[in-house]
Amino acid sequence: MMSRTGAEAINLYLIGFMGVGKSAVGRGVARVLKMQFIDSDRAIEETIGTSIREYFEKEGESAFRDREREFIESGHPSHGCVVACGGGLPIASGMIELLRARGVVVSLFAGPETILERTKHSDKRPLLNVPDPAGRVEELLREREAIYMQAGPGICTDNRALQEVILHLARIYHREAMRFSNSAAGSAER
Ligand code: S3P
Fold first, then answer.
1. Stretch among 81-95, 120-134, 169-183 having the lowest mean pLDDT
2. Is the whole model's pTM more than 0.90, yes or no?
3. Which domains are seen in the chain, by residue range?
4. Atom number of ligand 1 nearest to Cα 68
């Protein structure tokens, strides 16, 4: 039996470092799965009424992390959406568990060169707006990679066509959504 798609489907959370392709891949897979696409950064910007860059400047990173937690806890639909999560969203303690309780979690990966290339013109990434972005990327990857790797299945997006990554992800989603439903049914019976 195929897993459900559309508005009733189990949510899919895409996590991974800045620039690994969460938004592009997420938008594409949402189309394939007939689900709604949500970018956590965009949704939070709408709620706070300002840009992430300005919010970091005025309120600081930890206030932004609180907004991310609220978004996951109560700021998005419980079914039918593909969520591209900001790179730091799953890092704080308890966030991976929150995501895994709400749906399927898949990590995307890319090498530091790809990440730097894809992020160099962005101004929504204050953490990389420093004199040595390459050093910062390496440092943050060292801190975060184990968390991304342990969260669930992973896909590398380096040197792969977008469409190929999207179809690969859709297959993983179907498999993992079945597992998620079976384990939810199992825990309801216990
Ligand atoms: C961040 C990643 C960004 C954005 C913010 C902080 C991070 O999102 O949430 O600049 O800590 O890795 P993307 O991963 O979509 O670039």
1. 120-134
2. yes
3. 11-184 (3.40.50.300)
4. 9
